[in-house]
C-alpha cells in the first residue's frame, strides 16, 4: 500500500521531498519495486550489499542498482571475521580453498585475537542455554567492549531462550530484539543481544552463540544464505548448538574445520 501511494505521487510532489543523497545498506534484501521508488527521490544513491547474505525472498535489487548507479566497486577484502569463522562460512558456500572465499580475502588480525569455532553435541534447549551462560560470563570479561550475541533461527526458540536467560544472573546484561515485541535502539549497557538471525542482519558480535540451529531446516528456501549470514555475524568466537541433526549447509561448515587428510606416500602403495 505504501509503495502504491509513493508511485501515485506526481513529479511536483516528489520534488517537495527529494533528498541530496540516499544510502542503502543491506541492499540485497530490498525488492526491485522498492529500488524503483527510492530512485525517484534522489539522483545520488550509494548502496552496499552482498547477495550471499540475502535472507528474504526478494531478488534482483543489486542487479537493478548496477543499472542505475554510474559506478560499481567490488570490495576485495574484509576485516570482521576470524580465519576459523571464515572457513566455516566458506564450507557453507562450497568455497573452501577458493580465491573467492572469505578466508582468502580476510584481513582480520588473527594474532591479536585468535578465532575459535565450536560445534556442540546435541542437547535440549535448556541445556544449550546452560552451556551458553557458562561461556558468556567469561566472554563478558574477555571482551569488555564488544557486543555478544545469542541467536536462533525461529522466533519460538528465541522466546524460550529469553525466558531461560532472564532467570539467570545474566538477566541485567541481556536485551531482546524481536519483531513480535518491537525493535529498539541497542542498549550498550546490556551487551548480550538475544534475537533471531533475521533480526540480527547487519549486526556483528565479538562472540556469538547460535542456538537450536537445527531450526534452519524448517525454512523451505534460502537455508544456505541464512546459515551463511548467521555464521558471519561472529567476529572472534562462534559456538553452534543444536537439539537434532544439522542440515547440509551447516554440516559442510563443520566439515570445513577438519584438518586436511594426511598426504599419501605413493611409493608405499607399490612397495612389496
From TrEMBL:
Residues 193-240 form the UvrD-like helicase C-terminal domain. One of its GO terms (biological process) is recombinational repair. Keywords: ATP-binding, Nucleotide-binding. One of its GO terms (molecular function) is DNA binding. InterPro entries: DNA_helicase_UvrD/REP, P-loop_NTPase, UvrD-like_helicase_C. It comes from the Bacteria. This is DNA 3'-5' helicase II. It comes from Aminobacter anthyllidis.
